[in-house]
Write a structure and sequence with these properties.
This protein has 6 helices and 6 strands, in the order E-H-H-E-H-H-H-E-E-H-E-E. By secondary structure, it is α+β, with helices and mostly antiparallel strands. It has 2 domains: 93 residues; 97 residues, Muramoyl-pentapeptide Carboxypeptidase, domain 2 (2-Layer Sandwich). Strands 3-4-6-5 form a 4-stranded antiparallel β-sheet, covered by helices on one side. It has a two-stranded antiparallel sheet with strand order 1-2. Strand 3 and strand 4 form a beta hairpin. The structure holds zinc ion. Zinc ion binds next to loops.
Length: 203
Amino acid sequence: MPDKTDKKSSDVEMATNMTVRGHIDALQEIMGYNGAKIIFRNIGQSDVYETPPEYDWEPCMTEDARTMIYTEVVNTLGLKAALSLWRRMGYITAKYVVEKGHILDSFMDLAPDEKFRKSMEFFSAVSGKGKIVITEDGGVEYDCFNCTTCAPYDSERPICLGFVGSFQYLTDWSYGKGVYIVKEIKCKAMGDDTCYHVLTEIE
Ligand SMILES: [Zn+2]
């Protein structure tokens, strides 16, 4: 697991090449090459888009700049349309990072519960977002107390679907598809004090 002190010594929080490259590949898959290009151009990141980073742990751009990728999707499509896209973006980004970045290979052969717990711990460590919570019956939930994605918005329903999508991928990766669905049950956009994600068993 990479040590977060590897990141640039300044206090500015940095997003890694791994995550940004995952976003680029995910957005291209969803919006096509030119659609994704517009998003990156609008936030002043054309250079990163034209010459995508490798799937490695070097710092790529500030975390604030990375968050702008998500908010620009809202600016372009409106919040309602952006939400389902955010979910797919989260899901596909996690998929690429796992499959092309090979970040979870060492957990591959663990039992499903441990596989999921470790992959969620890993997500928290590398993203610098949130922490896992172990429930009384040993389940894993995610308290994203320092979520920034939803900060600019007010909503009557949870909107941190980028996280939901990424967690859904990790759930599917650990347990197989169709076993659990990830739900965000608290969201700062709804006035809650945190963004909180749980697994619900699919009947
Ligand atoms: Zn949030």
